[in-house]
Amino acid sequence: MANEQVKQIDRILHDHLTQWGLRRLTSTRAYLAWEQREASAEDLAHFDRLAERRRGGDPLDDTAFYDLSVQPPLFAILHSQRYDYYQTVGKAIASRIREASTILDVGCGAGILTTFYARLFPDRRFVGIDRSSVSIQVATQKAKELGLGNVSFRWLAIDSKASPPGETYDLILSSHVLVQHEWDSGIPSESWRTFARGRDAARQLAFERRTGVGAALDWLSRALAHEGRMIVVEKTRQLARRVPFQRAVAARGFHMIEKPQPIRYQLFEDAIDDGPLYHLKREGHSWLEWDESPEPDDNPPLNPLDLRYRPVAADAPLYENHKPSAQQAWERLNPRIIVKEATYQEPDGRAFHVELGTSGAYVYLYCANSFDQRQLVVYESRRAAVLEDYYRDITEHMISCSSVKDPAIGGKGESRGSLLASGG
Ligand SMILES: C[S@@+](CC[C@H](N)C(=O)[O-])C[C@H]1O[C@@H](n2cnc3c(N)ncnc32)[C@H](O)[C@@H]1O
Hints:
Blueprint: H1 3-19, H2 28-38, H3 41-54, H4 59-69, H5 74-80, H6 83-94, E1 102-106, H7 112-120, E2 125-130, H8 133-145, E3 151-155, E4 169-175, H9 201-211, H10 213-223, E5 224-233, H11 239-251, E6 255-256, E7 261-267, E8 270-281, E9 319-321, H12 326-331, E10 337-345, E11 351-359, E12 362-369, E13 374-380, H13 384-401, E14 411-415
Parallel strand pairs: 1-2, 1-4, 2-3, 4-5
Antiparallel strand pairs: 5-8, 6-8, 7-8, 9-13, 10-11, 10-14, 11-12, 12-13
The structure holds S-adenosylmethionine.
């Protein structure tokens, strides 16, 4: 899209969000002050209770939460939190609507984005559906106020109980609907040594059932025209959720027509990494392969030979990496002599490993779990005591958190001495 076009869409979107009563606030402090002026303590406490209950995963609780969130006085406050989300996701989706003439926005909520798309493309027909009846009432009323004749809203749930839609659409949009359960940890990797997920059909099915993704995707498949496209932006950035989500999509015959696009927006002071945005189709085939590896990170690779030349502050490690690339760095520590290690394996497949060792003139601490977290810290041997302390703290914490209390069953803790004692 040309620069001028992008600026124009920005202006329309800003104007649109203002018409919905949303504000762009860049500090948490300003936001909280506004929230306290607008809503009573009882309103906020009631909302918090519904938010907590929703975590149980019952669709009725989820709907009660959304019903409340679109009513005054909470509507403008809560949705203003998503101001930058609307800007980012709204633009990313709008630029891909292209030639579609019938567009279904599933889980449209109060229709903030649906009405924006309808405003931007007055010659296309938009339908928004949502299982929150109050959201649909708000959306319908607002579309009327905005004078939009090309958008309508229907109270409908996308799941196995809902009857298939009577018609099919050229394009289906889904943003923050299919995998909302950000507290669902997804599927663990095969072990702490790898990022790979095994092909365990029962685990995949369990993920699709508890998140509702399977039934929702089946429903969407029926609603999409044969040559139709689907644009999906969900909370699937973490590998443990990304892999089963991608597999669920691929199993229904979808392939990507562009590389998944990472989505990043601000939530006041914090940058949120979200998405990615998937642009999908069933018809034809694609040269793009589903990527099941962690996103590349910007940590410097470790070259053990360089360590001695690294200028570091007195108490800083020689090397530190808290990203997935720490696994590669750990593998490059050669030779690697393990002094102590402990592995905790939960019955549900989760595993956590911590290892203290030496590599030439260095000591290292490595932590890895089957939810793709990695951590490597390297010091010179003379500062080994620092890592001994970390190791002890971590293993004590793991023992207190692990459901496996008997090391003979699932936890393995082995010590071949102490770094200090070995003079390492
Ligand atoms: C976080 S809001 C997202 C709203 C909008 N898509 C956006 O991007 O701002 C999630 C919406 O999805 C709706 N929803 C969740 N599961 C649904 C389902 N199975 N069928 C229909 N709507 C659903 C909720 O009621 C809620 O309004």
